[in-house]
Amino acid sequence: MNTREQLRMLILAVLDRQPEHGYAIAQAIKGRSEGLLTAREGTLYPALHALEAEGLIESEEHEVGGACAANTA
């Protein structure tokens, strides 16, 4: 499994628990790996967009704070 596939699996694992926004997903990945893995914006958000395009997650916009949360589909 390459790094890209690992990131996708980690994102789906985080979102399996509850909807989260990008920053919280990145923090959860960092926490689960005890700081060994970091999901930077340049890799995290394209991965989220790809997962959404594939129908694996859905995003929602919230009026409060303007943040988007992702859900597993």
How would you sum up this structure, described in words?
This is PadR family transcriptional regulator. Pfam families: PadR. Residues 11-63 form the Transcription regulator PadR N-terminal domain. The protein has 73 residues and is α+β, with helices and mostly antiparallel strands. It has one domain (3-72): Arc Repressor Mutant, subunit A, CATH 1.10.10.10. Helix content is 53%, strand content 14%. The chain is built from 3 helices and 2 strands, in the order αααββ. Strands 1-2 form a two-stranded antiparallel sheet. The mean pLDDT is 85.
Ordered list of secondary-structure elements with their pairings:
Blueprint: H1 3-17, H2 22-32, H3 41-53, E1 57-61, E2 68-72
Antiparallel strand pairs: 1-2
Helix pairs in contact: 1-2, 1-3
Named CATH architecture: Orthogonal Bundle
Flag low-confidence runs: none
How much of the sequence lies in strands comes to 5-15%
Main sheet characteristics:
2 strands, antiparallel
Organism: Deinococcus multiflagellatus
Protein name: PadR family transcriptional regulator
Domain Transcription regulator PadR N-terminal: 11-63
Pfam families: PadR
